[in-house]
Amino acid sequence: MNRFFYSVHKWVSAAAFIQLAVWTVTGFLFAWIPQEKLKSTPVEGAHRAVLVDAPPVTVAGALEVGAAAAGGIESVELRGTPAGPFFIVRGDRATVRVDARTGELRPVGKGEAEAIARRDQPGGPPVRETTLVTDSPSIEYRDCEHGDCTLPVFRVALGDSAGTIIYVDAATGDVTARRNDTWRTYDFLWSLHIMDYKGRDDFNHLLIRCAAVLAMATVFSGMVILAIRATRWFRGRLGGRAKRASSA
């Protein structure tokens, strides 16, 4: 029986060793990576401006213009930005931006998206590359700032030392996600930790369940072996005392 538990422990430990090591190393690194470095902390208030006067276009006018493109109106918001005042009209089909000065639909262009991305980060780093993403975004575009990762979106890569990428909603100008090299490293480690190498968000799948069973088997067999050895040790101690007592 003892040999059986030793054999089980040896082979189960060998099977589980790599993933156990990965869990240990990634858990250690998670504890040491500062959370504030993950999302490229933005400049406070960089995308807001004070509305001194009421804009020429009224809410009713903005709703009339926005309804045709947005569908059934769900909400409307007047927003002051460095690029001017805008109404953000959200409908059941889409979200649109109406210029509060002219009453025209005005989606975010490439130049404005780059300006938003530069204002977002301290020092206004230069733009390295800008891409309009309309479908099939990369894996890093998830878990966004406002819940839903909206499309289309501008992916603005900044030329700073952190490798920062800012995602700007092409309809509203909102910053939907911030990514940098630290975040990408953390995300890769997370995929190893939860063993979801593609989606990186499922920690309740078959592969990790099998690994968890192996890990539990390793612990359980080790506890059995420890109990066996402890029992032998106590028996040896008691046997030694009995021999000394009888010889005395």
List the uncertain runs.
none
> Biggest sheet, in brief?
4 strands, antiparallel
Determine the N-to-C terminus distance.
Answer: 36 Å
Share of helix, binned = 40-55%
Number of helices: 5
* Lateral strand order in the biggest sheet: 4-5-6-7
Q: What's the domain count?
A: 2
Structural class: alpha+beta
Mean pLDDT: 88
Strand segment tally: 7
Shape: elongated
Structure description:
This protein is an alpha+beta fold and 248 residues long. The chain has 2 domains: 2-34 and 191-232; 39-179, no CATH class. Helix content is 44%, strand content 18%. It has helices at 2-32, 59-70, 110-120, 181-194, 206-247; strands at 73-81, 84-91, 95-99, 127-133, 153-158, 165-169, 175-179. The strands form 2 sheets. A 4-stranded antiparallel β-sheet has the order 4-5-6-7. Strands 1-2-3 form a 3-stranded antiparallel β-sheet, with helices on one face. β5 (153-158) and β6 (165-169) form a beta hairpin. It is elongated, with a radius of gyration of 30 Å.
Q: Which key phrases capture this entry?
A:
2 domains, elongated, three-stranded antiparallel beta sheet, alpha+beta, four-stranded antiparallel beta sheet, 248 residues, 5 helices
